[in-house]
Amino acid sequence: MKILVLPGDGIGPEITDATLRVLEAADARFRLGLAFETCEIGFSTLRTHGTTMPADILDRARASDGVLLGPISHLDYPPPEEGGVNVSAAFRTKLDLFANIRPARTRPGVPHRGTDMDLVIMREATEGMYPDRNMVAGCGEMMPTPDLALSMRKITRGACERIARAAFDLARTRRRRVAAIHKANAFRLTDGLFLEAVRSVAADYPDVALEEILVDAMAAHLVRDASRFDVVCATNFYADILSDLASELSGGLGLAGSLNAGETLAAAQAQHGSAPDIAGQDLANPTSLILSAAMLLAWSAARTGIAARKSAADAIEAAIDALLATPATRTRDLGGDLGTRAFAEAVAERVRDGRGDPSPEGRVAPGA
Questions:
Q1: Which of 84, 109, 235, 364 is deepest in the core (most CB within 10 A)?
Q2: pTM of the complete model
Q3: Domains along the chain?
């Protein structure tokens, strides 16, 4: 399995290196045959190539079996015409990684806000209220006058149907419930089209329950009782906000994995940003990117039927759970003692020797 590694900006190189340590441990134990190709993006190539995303990066991604994408500082990039390409957006649109999959679950021993939860937000990632994804040329935001700003939203039936189908397929492997998030009482045409598409897909899944919830009500429900939700399906902007809310309630963005998946390629990407203020200090929590890499292995296992990749993903997840359950083996942002490198090595050690592997009942093995 060939993985393209793009460390990115800020803490990106540190947490990417940490994630590679864990993947190498999984490779040694489960004989995954992993091969890594590392390329620079972001501010590094802006200085050397005049662009944050060199022209060959997309082709290298297409030639890979998966991508490990570190955080990027696109808010601080110059305008696109000056080389400041939003790498994350480019990957999602140009590689058609239409499903941004964001799990949020509470973990044993980890402090969290609100109720227990175990949900997955399926975020459509190629259109919606994002100006860089709505036009074949130019930008979806415009200013006809200095005092008037306009923004265009694009919703298509095809994009809504395929993210809905991905949500229903996932729900069939979980608790068979899908919540479709919308604001059709205000956006009658755009969110109305989204709901129409979701309902049409739901007809093919009579074994999966569909619930329709207004986006503002959904925010309140997550705070009040997130335990009732299984798979949440939403357009790009709504899902972006709700996934950050759910992840923070479940323990923090630093614990939230994220996968950008298409039909033939997927990119693991931490849900949080590049945190340049703590870069290079061994302070960053690498959990999000490590879990994202585990999601990439599980996605590949489902597509290829290679069971060892799913076993490796489960072992990584279980090792993370086992370490987070004890304050002393957490990173400093969670009240622990470990830096980025030490936490990664602790995860890698557990993956290598099997301590913390899930038991047959799905719990962390006794004595972990």
A1: 235
A2: 0.93
A3: 1-99+256-368 (3.40.718.10), 113-250 (3.40.718.10)
